[in-house]
Amino acid sequence: MIKRMFAIIILVVIMFAFWLAYLEIGELKNEYAKNYYLDKGFEETGSKNLVTAIYLDYRLFDSIFEAGILLLAVTGIMFMSKNDERR
Amino acid sequence: MRISLILVCISRLLYPFILLFGFYIILNGDKSPGGGFQGGVILATAFFITYFIDPKKIINLKLLVKIEKYLFALILIVACISYFTNGEFFTNFIPVDSPIENKRIFLILLNFFIGLKVTTGLIAVFSAFIEEGR
Amino acid sequence: MRIETLLQIIMIIIALTIILDKDNLRLVIFSSAFSLIAASLYYMNKSPDVALAEAAIGSAIIPLIFIIAIEKQKQFIVVNHLNDEFLDRDTGKGYKVLEEFAKHYGLKLSVYKNDDGQIQGAFRERNIDLIVEKSPQDNRKYLFIGKKASILMNKLEQMTKDIEDIKIIKVEESERYD
């Protein structure tokens, strides 16, 4: 019973926090980056798709290590499944 | 495991079209929605269909992981070429003042490598799941 | 009513169904439908890139991996080291207990007779769930030996709590029971 009450209280607190964040969305608007990409994205990268322009040119460093994370996950799964001494 | 004949026939019919769609999404990633990751995932789905056609297929997992490693190294090299042409790491290796049409070469190249890398990685994960305990 | 509102309401209903449902296979299908609706909502909110990735991953790859995992868990393999009829099909007392257990959890029960060559490291080599033996000290008790990490062993222990001549022993995954 105490556990359930505790869970409900936590849920109410989280909902209150989300509601406060929702009220502040309008004040935090910043359109500088959006306007920059819309104006110069095509000229600087040559890509009509702005998503590609961002992840292959402006943020290429992040994309490369995202690919590295996939490589790490695959090698981890291989290690786990081959470590079974089945053959 | 018994597989219905209808499923096998439909899979055989769909397989080339899904492959075509995946390559279309990868190679047109710079002017239409999509890109390397999405196209790679669709190519991997196309490969999974072949498990319905032939469930007893055996895949060389070590070779796949090796291919993936080399593709990752290739992506790194392509991203680092720009240091010698532009003097800056991790950006387009074609000079800034060249025509826009030429800059697409870099995007298509990198999209293609990322797509192949995602495909091999997902195929390796999925095949490891299937062959576990068989 | 706009179609997006309708899709959002359907999405909430499907999410509640996923939480409340008990059948694993149906649950996977529901989660696939959930991803499909999410993909169409992404498309309607003008982000087709995310919609492509969501449609391919959420409704094709993840359900396939889940279905394979469920399919591999459906067998319950028992190795029989006894010489009497405790685990004989249809007549044995222990077989009845195990059959009831397997039927309750929707598993497929398969009992193998012992052969001494394969006992060594049996847990790791052949993915065995349970070994049945006679107790060396007390001649009337039967030992059920299984992995400690398995959740099924806890349920089997609860089920056989009030049967007197069955004793359950849980072993670590790495150690070998000789």
Automatic annotation (TrEMBL), chain A:
Does the keyword Transmembrane helix belong to this entry? yes
Q: Which residues cross the membrane?
A: 64-81
Q: Which organism is it from?
A: Thermohalobacter berrensis
What keywords would UniProt list here?
A: Membrane, Transmembrane, Transmembrane helix
The protein here is known as Sodium:proton antiporter
Organism lineage reads as:
Bacteria, Bacillati, Bacillota, Tissierellia, Tissierellales
Q: Could you tell me the superkingdom of the organism this chain comes from?
A: Bacteria
From TrEMBL, chain C:
Spell out the Pfam families in the cross-references: MbhD
- Where does the protein principally reside? membrane
Please name the taxonomic classification of the source.
Answer: Bacteria, Bacillati, Bacillota, Tissierellia, Tissierellales
Q: How does it sit in the membrane?
A: Multi-pass membrane protein
Please verify whether the record's keywords include Cell inner membrane: no
**Record field: transmembrane:** 6-20, 27-44, 50-70
Q: Which residues form the MrpA C-terminal/MbhD domain?
A: 9-74
- The scientific name of the source species is Thermohalobacter berrensis
GO cellular component term of the entry, any: plasma membrane
Against InterPro entries, the record matches this protein to: MrpA_C/MbhD (IPR025383)
The cellular location(s) given in this protein's UniProt record come to: Cell membrane
Q: Which UniProt keywords apply?
A: Cell membrane, Membrane, Transmembrane, Transmembrane helix
Name of this chain's protein: MrpA C-terminal/MbhD domain-containing protein
